[in-house]
Fold this protein.
Amino acid sequence: MNYILFDDNTRENLLPFTFTRPVADIRCGILKISEKWAKYLDTNVSYLTLDYLSVKFPIALADDNILINGSVFPALHLLDSINALKINECLVKDDFILAVRLEHNKISSFNPCNIEGLQKVSFEHPVLKINNTWDIFSLNEIAIAEDFELITKGRTSCDLSNTNRYAGDKIFIEEGAKVEFSVLNAQFGPVYIGKDAEVMEGALVRGPLALCEHSALKMGAKIYGATTIGPHSKVGGEINNSVIFGFSNKAHDGFLGNSVLGEWCNLGADTNNSNLKNNYAIVKLWNYKQERFVNTGLQFCGLIMGDHSKSGINTMFNTGTVVGVSANIFGDGFPRNFIPSFAWGGAQGFSVYTLPKAFETAAQAFRRRGLEFDETEKNIFTRVFDDTEKYRRF
């Protein structure tokens, strides 16, 4: 069977992250949603997403296809119902499509918000689904626990050096990982240390934690769960209940809490975010779909930062700040709570971060990791720059 992960209208609520990726490419827990499905299905998956993203995230078609909602996390009972679908049947939960089975010639006309012409099959069990940006860190504790069981089942952890202190039995160390003179507390949730990752001396960890492959906790880091550090990232200072997708750095002291960082971000030394308002009020966040600040229902909510954005040293982010793609924030004082993509500046004002300069910075970041910032990446940048122009009224 051929499996395709599709974007539904949740995509707009998940901006700025979905400016540069399909919904299913979002990381929550140890794995991206697409990686979770690939493991459950034991096969490769592809994407049905916006045209400008489809070069980087292509679709693979077959005569017979099952399309799965890319914002939904896999589960065995859900997988059974999906695989039981017949051609032109649609699995539905409440008011959204979970999955549909279609022949090749029907996919181009598929509308994820419309089941007209499809045979409806209701799914009665609960499902785990990300609907908003803050769900990424809010669901991270559940997601880490599920991914930990999925990844480690039937496997044996590498030994933990006797220089460390630890508590709890859900600690898994992958091959090539280095952990020395640290404290790992897995009594509150699992601790997963990925392949070739490093936990440096003096790090204090309280699970759930996912430290993915080739990432590092720097000396003296203080990590509270539920936190995910994606691949090829370096973090230090204090982090609480946050998700970093990958290839991003928060390498120095400073606090990051109840936050999500995309890929290729960098927080300068002593960057701090507030995750709680002084009056303990419910936090509001900028929503691209509604083009206004919306109520999250959360008392704790910090920084939402899109891919390739960066902050200078001593930057302060107020409670519930949303930063778009490839923005550069610096200077004293608190900048605004919504910072558009390709913005350059801070509390004293912003100017436009032009595409040639953004290309140059991104290319250098890629080059440091042995990667190429190619035409596909440039085309995505250009599309995001054009689509977000209306927000840059500086």
